[in-house]
Amino acid sequence: MGKILVFVEFNHGQLKRSSLELLSAAQSSGQTVVAAAVGSLAEGISKEASQYGATDIYVIKETTFDKYNPELFTLGLTEIIKKSEASLVLATASALGKDLFPRVAARLDAGILSDCIELKISGDNVTAKRPIYSGKCFSKVTFENCPIKIVLMRPNQLPISVPNASATTNVIAHSVNAPSLRTLIKEVVKGTSEKLDLTEANIIVSGGRGMKEAGNFKFLEQLADVLGATVGASRAVVDAGWVTHDLQVGQTGKTVAPSLYIAVGISGAIQHLAGMSGSKVIVAINTDANAPIFQKATYGIVGDFADVLPKLTEEFKRAMA
């Protein structure tokens, strides 16, 4: 039986939902599961990782790992994977994961599948499903002649298992003897929003050009506050400077798969659909009854956002009270 290593990401001392999904998938395979975490607070999430099946967790606690440095992280994760003797590595297809693990794969001469939406593990056989051509079709992919396999999964694609509160894990500290680095992270400027990142959010309320002006995004924010959602946007409003690029959903923005996606004033260009078509339920609000978004929507409302959103917000307030 092989061993699966899950690279876990965390915020404020708690594992991200996407990492819980990966741990649950690894645990359901029946193989030995270990985890890897980096940063000065990494050891603090060991208990939570154990509840989802990790028997061991490799941690790099150096403060130099609190900020992402591709050289340093590549070295650290390469060493941990070798040390763990894992044959399969699971990680999230986040901005960090998609930058880091191709580098790790090159170091290990490993095979890598990125941006996957389905995963099946059966012994040494690993198959995954991933969208191609902006989500117009899908490919089923596997590995050949790869002693080490790496799979990067999109968030919100896999079920989360019931945690075992009595489980324990063995914490293995790993130190990295860093060589002279060619790159140095001097500062990380974070956004002011405290809401979940779009890729992690379970509910997203997005706005497009039909919102007419930047000030009208307050209607989206009010609805998002009631639902505990994250606000997103189409490329058109990002290009217009109404919101920052980190809110962009689409082919040149972020790919999301929430349980509920509310698209307001978004026509449904193929580039936007490529980033949100994996949503479980899509609600479209648009004044144009012929907008392409309605072809993808689970529910559609033909109307002006200024009339519809305040009423929706009030109804949700009552329903959730």
List the helices and strands and how they pair.
Elements: E1 3-7, E2 10-11, E3 14-15, H1 17-28, E4 32-38, H2 46-51, E5 56-60, H3 70-84, E6 88-92, H4 95-108, E7 111-116, E8 118-122, E9 125-132, E10 137-142, E11 149-153, E12 170-173, E13 203-207, H5 217-227, E14 230-233, H6 235-239, E15 260-264, H7 270-276, E16 281-286, H8 293-296, E17 299-302, H9 305-320
Parallel strand pairs: 1-4, 1-6, 4-5, 5-12, 6-11, 7-11, 13-14, 13-15, 15-16, 16-17
Antiparallel strand pairs: 2-3, 8-9, 9-10
Helix pairs in contact: 3-4, 5-9
How would you describe what is shown here?
By secondary structure, this protein is α/β, with parallel strands linked by helices. The chain has two domains: 3-173, Rossmann fold; 203-320, TPP-binding domain (Rossmann fold, 3-Layer(aba) Sandwich). The protein contains nine helices and 17 strands. The strands form four sheets. It has a seven-stranded parallel beta sheet with strand order 7-11-6-1-4-5-12, sandwiched between helices. Helix 5 packs parallel to helix 9 (305-320). The chain is elongated and about 60 Å long. The model has no long low-confidence stretch (mean pLDDT 93).
